[in-house]
Write a structure and sequence with these properties.
This protein is mainly beta and about 200 residues long. It is built from 4 helices and 12 strands.
């Protein structure tokens, strides 16, 4: 489980395609604190550390993950938002994030707003999935590339988020531009409530 508060934007230093799998090797400042079998969220996708060196670690994304996320688009040198699993003895600063990406979205527009930025994202809308909570609501939570954010201007197939300078600088949001593909995880609480409501119809 994660909170959507990014620890670091790490760098992809190697990628190896292995049949339907993709092995990604990352370089980050806390490699010496990781261990094999540990879960780390990459752009919001929970992946398991499979090997370590002194200054890097490797994770594997399988076909299902690659089909639902933007990980297959990553190239050497790209920045990836990292978050280690949440400690249960601290404050939940973001919202409950599972690390199970639902789908991707495309950035339609980035607008500077006197020191902050508004990003507009559009995603494929499916009415049946929306009934089960795969949608956004005004002032609700959404996870974009692993970052816990508050929704504004929620529409049927799009929404906006406001990004503060800290988030812009210390995550890969500074690389996102019109046309960029990002990962979405909709709010798990909203999914459960929507699903339960289906049984009362």
């Amino acid at each position: 489980m994660f909170s959507g508060i990014i620890e670091e934007a790490a760098t992809v230093i190697n990628r190896v395609v292995d049949n339907g799998n993709l092995h990604l090797t990352m370089q980050c400042s806390f490699v010496n604190e990781l261990k094999v079998d540990q879960s780390v969220a990459h752009n919001g996708v929970c992946l398991t550390v499979v090997s370590l060196t002194e200054d890097s670690y490797t994770v594997t994304a399988i076909k299902e993950t690659l089909e639902r996320s933007n990980l297959g688009m990553l190239q050497i040198g790209d920045k990836v938002n990292l978050e280690r699993s949440m400690l249960m003895n601290g404050r939940l600063d973001g919202h409950i994030v599972q690390g199970h990406v639902d789908q991707t979205a495309v950035c339609m527009r980035v607008e500077e707003a006197d020191g902050s930025w508004y990003y507009t994202f559009r995603y494929e809308f499916n009415k049946e999935m929306a009934k089960q909570g795969y949608t956004t609501v005004e002032k609700g939570s959404v996870c974009v590339n692993g970052v816990s954010l508050t929704v504004c201007n929620s529409q049927e197939n799009s929404f906006q988020v406001a990004i503060i300078p800290y988030t812009y600088e210390f995550t890969n949001f500074h690389q996102i531009k019109s046309g960029s593909v990002v990962n979405l995880e909709f709010d798990i609480i909203g999914k459960y409530i929507s699903r339960i409501a289906q049984f009362n119809d």
